[in-house]
Design a protein that fits this description.
Blueprint lengths: L1 E8 L5 E8 L4 H18 L16 E7 L14 E2 L2 E2 L7 E4 L4 E8 L2 E9 L11 H4 E7 L7 E4 H4 L10 E2 L3 E4 L3 E4 L3 E3 L2 E8 L5 E13 L9 E9 L8 E8 L2 E11 L11 E5 L8 E2 L3 H4 L7 E4 L2 E4 L2 E2 L3 E9 L11 E11 L5 E3 L2 E6 L2 E4 L2 E4 L3 E10 L12 H4 L3
Parallel strand pairs: 10-17
Antiparallel strand pairs: 1-2, 3-16, 4-5, 6-16, 7-15, 8-13, 8-14, 8-16, 9-10, 9-15, 11-12, 12-13, 17-31, 18-28, 19-26, 19-27, 19-31, 20-21, 20-28, 22-23, 24-25, 25-26, 29-30
């Protein structure tokens, strides 16, 4: 009797060992055992999204969803409200007339469970004078019994749509599709409770807010080493020359950094993207462990994303599963005024997902990026308007976030 042992590394650093006793081992047998072990490994990745292979395994979970048709997610309670068409015929498709200054509870779920997918849509403006809805609505996520949120972010930026404007995003964890269909697929496990709120800091009531949060409820509690999802928005309206912009700081505990969204408004001329991303991990002080080679390099591009069109240099946009430059504009396309043109400072939106390559930390993490440009006279220090969202997982509890700027301080230029 021969024992076949195959080890596969899991996302959390552990290993899954597949063992099979057999009288003989052929090449075909080995391949078949590897396929089985890969399926088990995919299933064993705690808190990760389902894969095609993992769909072959039965999971001891129950599927639920909360939305305006079933705000509690209770089994058998969806679509109860009636409309002019009768009972259970689009009686409550959205939250209506969220007042100014009000906080709506989108979900309050008893665990253990895991949020699998979030879908939201809302208008970008309420009037031509009030057109930054996507920066004025604030999402907050609270896990278990915490009083300080683990996620605090303007709605649009959370889905890689900064500047109060929607754009198409086609990536693995975030997809934004026509028209303003915001989708998030990061897995978000929780132990005792998950609470998600939306605060309306807009100047007017939000007449219609559509959403659905798909989640699973587990039969058994998670292991003690489960990591919780976090996201934090920051902005510096005018960076300081020679001083790096801080994407994330003050993280205490053990976890891994999984993504960056950058909303850059350039305020100086010439090329803007020579600044390097730096990751100060654990005991790093003056110098980081990881230092990149340039901003466009960090987002997977090179040589300024540039091509030549009729003698002009034009940056190219792109979306890939883990890297993207989905948005560029130097115009305000959402409103029209007979007495001024639509010029804006150039606005660029980028994402980078560290899903195949998470940045692991054991005690501390700080993330920064420089503002360095280049032109015919060489490198130079820049001052720009930079906003960002940092996405990471860590074991709780987390350190308090910096105070979120007021709605007006979040508006784009």
């Amino acid at each position: 009797m021969t024992t076949v042992s195959i080890a596969f590394s899991l996302a959390d650093g552990d290993f899954l060992i597949f063992k099979k006793q057999t009288t003989s081992v052929t090449e075909a047998d080995t391949h078949r055992y590897e396929c089985i072990a890969q399926t088990d490994a995919a299933y064993a990745m705690k808190g990760t999204n389902m894969t095609l292979e993992s769909l072959t395994k039965i999971r001891h979970e129950s599927s639920r969803a909360v939305n305006a048709e079933n705000p509690t997610g209770e089994p058998g309670k969806g679509g109860i409200a009636a409309s002019e068409l009768g009972p259970s015929r689009k009686g409550s498709p959205c939250l209506r007339n969220i007042p100014v200054g009000a906080t709506a509870t989108l979900a309050d779920i008893t665990g253990p469970g895991c949020i699998r997918h979030i879908w939201i849509t809302v208008d970008e403006k309420t009037t031509d004078a009030d057109c930054f809805v996507l920066r004025d609505l604030v999402l907050r996520f609270y896990w278990d019994d915490e009083e300080e949120p683990s996620v605090e972010c303007p709605l649009g930026d959370f889905f890689c749509c900064g500047f109060g404007r929607a754009c198409l995003v086609n990536s693995m964890p975030v997809a934004v599709v026509p028209n303003r269909g915001f989708n998030m697929y990061f897995s978000m496990p929780f132990g005792a409770r998950a609470r998600i709120t939306l605060e309306n800091q807009h100047k007017n009531a939000i007449s219609a807010f559509f959403y659905q949060i798909d989640y699973t409820v587990n039969d058994e509690p998670f292991d003690d080493d489960i990591a919780y999802f976090h996201a934090q928005w920051r902005r510096q309206r005018l960076t300081e020359k020679g001083r790096d912009y801080v994407v994330l700081d003050g993280v205490k505990g053990e976890g891994h950094y999984v993504g960056t969204y950058l909303a850059l408004t350039t305020l100086e001329r010439y090329w803007w993207g020579e600044g390097e991303f730096k990751f100060y991990i654990d005991d790093d002080e003056e110098y980081p462990t990881i230092c990149g080679t340039g901003t466009e390099d960090y987002f997977g591009g090179s040589w300024s994303f540039a091509k030549q069109v009729n003698g002009k240099t034009v940056e190219q946009n792109y979306c890939t599963p883990y890297l993207g430059y989905p948005y560029y504009s130097s115009h305000d396309e959402l409103i029209h005024n007979d007495y001024h043109n639509d010029d804006c400072p150039p606005m660029r939106g980028f994402y980078r997902w560290h899903i195949p390559d998470p940045i692991r930390f054991r005690s501390n993490l700080k993330v920064t990026v420089q503002q360095i440009g280049v032109g015919h006279r060489g490198f130079f220090e820049r001052q720009d308007d930079v906003a960002s969202v940092a996405y990471w997982y860590q074991k709780g509890p987390h350190a308090p976030f910096p105070q979120l700027p007021s709605a007006e301080e979040r508006w784009p230029r």
